[in-house]
Amino acid sequence: MNKIWRAKTAICIFLDAVLLLAGMAYVFLISSRVIAPGGFLTDMSVLPMVMLTALFVLVLVDAVAAFAVSTSTWHSTFLAVSLLLYYFFSEDMTVSLYNVRLYPNAALFESLHYAFFLLSVIALFVLWNYTYRLHIPARQAIAACAFAAACAVAYGVCVMFRVQSVVAFLSLAVVLPLFIRTYVSVCRAKKDNFNFYVTGFILCSVCGLSLAEIVCNTGLVSAFPAGASTACAFAGILCYAVIYIYFIAGLDKRALKASQYKLQYERVKSQALRAQIKPHFVFNVLSSVKSLYRRDRESGDLAINLFSRHLRANIEALNIDFVPFEKELDNIQVFVSLENLRREKPFKVIFDIDCTDFDIPVLSLQPYVENAIKYSKVNEKEDGYIRISSSEADGKVLLEISDNGVGFDLGAIRPSSCGIKNSRERFLLLIGTEPEIRSVPGRGTEVIIRLGKNAKEDFQNENDHRR
Amino acid sequence: MKMIIVDDEVCALQLFLGDIVGKADIEYKFFKDTPDEIVAWVARNRADAAFLDINMPGIDGVRLAEKLIDVQPDIRIAFVTGLDMGERDLPARVRESTVGFLYKPYDEDKLAWLLSVVANELLRMTVKTFGSFDCSVNEKPVRFSSQKSKELFALLIAYNGKVLTMSDAISQLWPDLDTARSKILYRDAVWRLRKTLRDINFNCVEFSRAKLYLNKSNISCDYWDFLAGTGKGYKGEFLKAYDWSIDYLAALDSLTD
Question: Topology of A277-466 in CATH?
């Protein structure tokens, strides 16, 4: 996982850099007339309108995707909107509007064009911060936004005096480092996230062209090339296209996996309920209780208390996935005491407990104890026992449920008790570990379960991620 | 101590009565589901504690608790319920006044414990070692879940506050077994002792890796009193069920002379 993440991030950073540099190079090359802009990019009558329509469609598609797909893409929708507005106020668009005899205020358009460029950078900075919980202080974020807004206004004023480049450089000097800082933090956040790749690609392609535009505006490089903004919007759309193809290709697989998991989870859970409360067990206990009351009141009371604790644990299990290990041990002790009520030769359980500070799937050990009670015949042996042990090594917990009973031939008989099958599935599903059963005829059976100490937290994190 | 008990079922009230009747210092009043009457009664008479059912047709026990707290802020609430509820399900105001939950059908030990908490009573353990070994907390005998865990506790008492190591305990309790097996049984006894003490809310033993330590406060023991010179009752018998107690007899005999 970590390796894949690293490779993905490295590729993304590399592509982002290439897009940034390519954008800048493109503008510089056409403005210094080293290369001629592509034919279609110089025709400023129809193309901007086409491009604008394309961007509008993109925003719609993106909004629908963000709404319908559980992996939220509000980032990219926001970015698509800024890209649309950024392009709408660009010089190419202005020229195009002139061509259809609409005469917008060029100065206003230029300052809005710049404002939306800043807005997309700042918005992304804030959104990334929020999504990845980077803990960049809110004050810094607010200050950056305020600064960017002030810059955008100042830029508008400066446009009238044709000195806008000073403000442009000044604002970039503050905003870009912030952006870079966020970018680096996201790369370090070690979260494999689709949104980051999308927004990173688009922003870098737009940034490259825009930065070059600003440099051209200073007059350092001859004239501002017509078609640069259109190229920029084009690059943005292209990035979106590539990313959507990638996303949609992966979408089916991911959705299928998630829904399969959910189905399996529900099935296993409902099976667990059926496996838990067994009618014959309930009635056996009730008749033992009845006979105990005939003997004496106190042992009847004791049995009723045990039985209600058992039922309560089972009912609680409907609503939870994990319990503290000690609670599960309590449940087992109650269960064994209930089983012993109606037996002349009681089962002896040894609690060889060395570590308790972890959680396990609720009622997941009981089926193994139940099996030992059913088949091991350890109560007929002089020193027969069922042993439950827990120990810890290297942050891993080793659970063992063993008995020194009759054992069975694993090849010949499959322990296909419903409870065991279900417990096994829950261990697999909730913790990703599989109980290992070993048995030797005549010597006993042991069940070994290995789990991480933070199995519960890991499961919850996974689940949050799935949602 | 004055307390009120509210339940909509006569059976439940009867059961409760059966458990507390004859207990010293308890004055009680039972109510069925007549919330206004209850609140009015508490406003007039004061009550130290209220034992409330939660799920009643007339009123919800938690709401009733809120009203009772309104008329008497220092009242202590205990819930007696069949529901799967805990402190986390209570509003903060009620939680502050709540001393505990009893789940129906409750166990008498739990009730006794809750009563002592309500009464602000300190839990005290009394240990008898001369003759056979007996422990009780506030007059209720402690039920150990195995013989060996009881013996382990007796050994801790005999150690008189000294640290008991695993190897010491094993050599005294399981002298004839091999190490691997005796360690397993030792851990079983430790776990059971720990659970027994936790169940009665009397956590007097510190359990750490391969070591046990008994905190002597709130425990009175005839053996300790005798060692301190204030107790009597030694008649040549000390923890007679346990083989290792022979080692203590010589010292005890020398003190009697």
Answer: Heat Shock Protein 90 (3.30.565)
Mutation test of the interface with chain B: which of A302, A306, A352, A391, choosing the one with the most B Cβ atoms within 10 A?
A352
Distance of CA A382 to the CA centre of its chain: 54
Given an 8 Å threshold on Cβ–Cβ distance, is B187 in contact with A301?
Answer: no
Neighbour tally for A434: CB within 10 Å: 13
pTM: 0.63
**In Å, how far is A326's CA from the nearest CA of chain B?**
9
Output the CATH code of domain A2-252: 1.20.1070
From chain A, the residues in CB contact with B145 under 8 A are 333
Contact A439, A408 (CB under 8 A): yes
Q: 3-state DSSP call for residue B36? A: helix
CATH level 3 topology of B2-118: Rossmann fold (3.40.50)
> For chain B, what are the domain ranges?
2-118, 125-256
Cβ–Cβ of A351/B188 closer than 8 Å?
yes
* CATH class held by domain B125-256: mainly alpha
B18 interaction partners in chain A (CB closer than 8 Å): none
The complex's ipTM works out to 0.80
Instruction: Give the dihedral sign, CA A140/A144/A150/A151.
Output: positive
Per-residue pLDDT of chain A (467 residues; tens, 9 = 90+): 466 667 777 777 787 788 778 777 777 776 666 655 554 455 566 777 777 888 888 788 777 776 765 444 566 677 778 778 888 887 777 777 777 777 777 777 777 877 777 777 777 776 676 666 666 666 776 777 777 777 777 777 777 676 666 777 777 777 777 777 777 777 776 665 666 666 677 777 777 777 777 666 665 554 556 666 777 777 777 777 776 776 666 666 666 777 777 777 777 776 766 666 677 888 888 999 999 999 888 889 889 989 988 988 888 887 788 889 999 999 999 999 999 988 888 999 999 998 888 999 888 898 899 888 888 888 888 888 999 999 988 888 999 999 988 887 776 655 556 778 788 888 888 888 888 888 888 888 999 999 888 877 777 776 665 55
Which helix (H) or strand (E) segment holds residue B189: the answer is: helix B179-199
Tell me whether strands B211-214 and A349-353 are parallel, antiparallel or unpaired: unpaired
CA distance A179 to A245: 27
Minimum CA–CA partner of B188 in chain A: A351
**Are A354 and B187 in contact (CB < 8 Å)?**
yes
List residues of B whose CB lies inside 8 A of any A CB: 84, 103-108, 145, 184-185, 187-188, 191-192, 195
DSSP state of A407: -
Cβ distance B191 to A351 less than 8 Å, yes or no, reads yes
